[in-house]
Amino acid sequence: MTPSILWLLAKNWPLLLVRGILSLLFGILVLLWPELPLEILWISWGAYMGADGLLALSASVRGEGPAPRLGLALHGLFEIGLAVYSLTDLPQSALTLLIVIACWCIFRGIWELGMALLLRKELDDGCWLILPGGFSLIFGALLLIRPGAGALAVATLVALCCQLLGFVGILLALQWRHFKDP
């Protein structure tokens, strides 16, 4: 009998908890110091992407069954690629940072909505996966549609997005740590 996708994700609840905490901390950093120079914001975001990507890859290695492992591995590789790009090629403008963050939000939103769809029969409260997925997807699309918004407004929205994703990640991790596969 193959384990359920929810059980595979729940088995990695400590990684989800760390991801949530990192996301929350990054959001707080940006909110507390919105006037950070672009380079510091870029490097901080790159470090966050690298850590998040490594955690996703770790979860894919620890998992069982092909579907969630492949998805987590692709998710991790995408974020590690963004981290390498961010840490090796500082942006020439805030627009570059904005486009990279928008693409990440869209990718993450699609990933989380896909996981919510896969888990819809196993979760009683699947809205905790749909909410951040939909928010990320819409936020990323809005960033691409309206890139001319003020830098401070964009930094504030990125911070709020990271805080929401972090908060929901922490809630899911704490909920899933008690999950037992039937």
What does this structure look like?
The model has no long low-confidence stretch (mean pLDDT 77). Helices cover 80% and strands 0% of the residues. It has helices at 5-11, 13-32, 38-62, 66-88, 94-119, 127-145, 151-176. The chain has seven helices and no strands.
State the gist of this model.
The protein is an all-alpha fold. Helix content is 80%, strand content 0%.
Annotate the secondary structure layout.
Elements (H helix, E strand, L loop, with lengths): L4 H7 L1 H20 L5 H25 L3 H23 L5 H26 L7 H19 L5 H26 L6
Helix pairs in contact: 2-3, 2-7, 3-4, 4-5, 5-6, 6-7
Number of strands: 0
For the largest beta-sheet, the strand count, sense and barrel status come to: none
Structural category: mainly alpha
Give the amount of beta strand, in percent. under 5%
Radius of gyration: 16 Å
Indicate the mean pLDDT.
77
Features:
DUF308_memb; Acid_resist_chaperone_HdeD; globular; transmembrane; Serine Threonine Protein Phosphatase 5, Tetratricopeptide repeat; 80% helix; transmembrane helix; membrane; mainly alpha
